[in-house]
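Objective 1b. Sequence-to-structure analysis of Pimeloyl-[acyl-carrier protein] methyl ester esterase.
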Amino acid sequence: MKEIWWHTEGEGNCHLVLLHGWGLNAQVWDCITPELRSHFTLHLVDLPGFGRSSGFSAMSLSDMAQWVLAQAPEKAIWLGWSLGGLVASQVALTHPERVQALVTVASSPCFSAQGDWPGIKPEVLSGFQQQLSLDFQRTVERFLALQTMGTENARQDARKLKSAVLALPMPTEAVLNGGLEILKTVDLREPLSGLKMPFLRLYGRLDGLVPRKIIPLLDAQWPASQSVVFDKAAHAPFISHPEAFCDVLLDLKQNVVGKI
């Protein structure tokens, strides 16, 4: 039976599943796993079609969540970055009994701008889809550069993302297009308002892909959730601010484990 790539390490008494973003793979977490592995049992995942999880075609958000859930521990904190935030959120919606807490990082329940909702203009996402077929490598690199723009060490941070991509085989154009389609069409704002488990939302104030204007809107719509903003971070706060990022997760673990 086909399986996605899954690696477990660490010795903590709490399981933490880490889901990466569009175009990338689990190696993006290399900057925080040394700190986290002594506090958590870490589950590092390459989403279907990405990194070492090759041989998969483009799929829907619900299908992607099902593939990840099939290899997941019975109970864990689920953390998803960007596109991975949507996958983790989908797991929390369909199998809440498996999720001790949900953490979304630089993610949005609705990435696409709609009416008064701030987000990425749909035509921008469509443009990325068209550019993939014209200049595959350059389009991915441009998307990665957007994720660190504005930070103090933007070039260095972008290189870390790029090295994670280049270390492994690139996803196919179809898989990348499928991921962009999820970002363009999915809207989980209303479904996530009913979540009962602890829900932590982490943002970078300089993020050019997930506008900070969504933070107060979601604070109001999801009063049971908590938002944390890293002031000098962009779309990858775990790369630009690894120590502060880990501190937030350790505080969450203390609160969640203490309630079990």
